[in-house]
Amino acid sequence: MLLEFQSLPYLSHRGDVVAVIITDGLTKYYGEQRGIENLTLQMNEGEILGFIGPNGAGKSTTIRLLLNFVFPTAGEASVLGYDVVEDALEIRRRVGYLPSECHYYPEMTGEMLLEYAERFYRKDCSKRRQELAELLDLDLSKRTGELSFGNRKKLGIIQAMQHCPELLILDEPTGGLDPLMQEVFLDMVREEKELGVSVFFSSHILSEVQKISDRVAIIKEGTLIKMESIKGLLSDQFKRVTIEWGNDKTNDLKLAGLTEQDRQGNISTFIFRGDIRDLVAALGGLELLDLRIEEPSLEEVFLHYYDHTEVVL
Questions:
Q1: 186 shares its domain with 133
Q2: Distance between CA atoms of 259 and 283, rounded to whole angstroms?
């Protein structure tokens, strides 16, 4: 069953924007234990959406619901226009999925495993998987039981990408990869986007999310608390401020909007959210040796929302 876009009135359909993932009040409980609660979001075609939150926030539960590995307690969702419950097989044919941990039959070689997976997609993936194996420097002749965690993750990346899917769903994709290979993988994701592939990128490593994502969705205790473009999130009146006081006995500022304050001798650092004129006015007449006002990192913005946003269930 195809879900009609117009059946979800809280979403806007402007111009040529097409939604590849829609969730409406999506909820999952495992008995009395909360998985996610009333998750409503839209991911658009051709974008990389960073889905961020710490372990236990509900990221993997969301992915399992989108791929119909578990059934929702309430709400609905569609992927590529298909209902996640009624059309799960069609979704899985069109999506490339990379789990956070990759486990395989230990006696199978990488080549055997990928050829086996290829049959599900009903296409010849041999050329594509060889290209991916060369990029990731992975020997497909080895048995999966002989592979390190990082090499199993490489095999999972190839399995997710070899059939040229329309949508990639990646759950903590760089875990186990060394720093150099992480950069190779991120370049691969960028290239997929240039080819028109949409990417749902779940991670708690905020630096890599910031590098490649168009938008981010922040999840806390199973509930979406913020969804914004990277540019918008970083420019949302947040500033990282460093002050070198002329007198190390000067008291810290008392001003609304200051968080993450730290004081080392005569150096104060904090995150400020508010009207910059209020900050300048508060500093007037104080003895300063140096003042730096900079854009914060995604991690600093994330911590602000995570520490200072109340979730009401």
A1: yes
A2: 16
Residues 123 and 248 in one domain: no
Of 199, 229, 259, the residue at which a domain comes to its end is 229
Q: Which structural domain range is residue 248 located in?
A: 236-294
pLDDT digits (tens, 9 = 90+) for 207-264: 888 889 999 998 888 999 888 888 777 666 677 888 888 876 666 777 777 777 788 8
Long-range CB contacts for residues 139-144, cutoff 8 Å, separation at least 24: 139/110, 140/109, 140/110, 140/111, 140/114, 141/109, 141/110, 141/111, 142/109, 142/110, 143/106, 143/107, 143/108, 143/109, 144/104, 144/105, 144/106, 144/108, 144/109, 144/110, 144/113
Tell me the pairing of strands 238-245 and 288-294. Answer: antiparallel
Query: What predicted TM-score, i.e. pTM, was given to this entire model?
Result: 0.77
DSSP 228-286: EEHHHHHTSSEEEEEEEESSTTPPPP--TTEEEEEEETTEEEEEEES-HHHHHHHHTTS
Structure tokens at 20: 């590849």
Work out how many domains the chain is built from and give that number. 2
Residue with token string 């939150």: 53
HSE at residue 78, side-chain half, CA atoms within 13 A, is: 18
pLDDT in tens, 38-78: 999 999 999 999 998 878 889 999 999 999 999 999 999 99
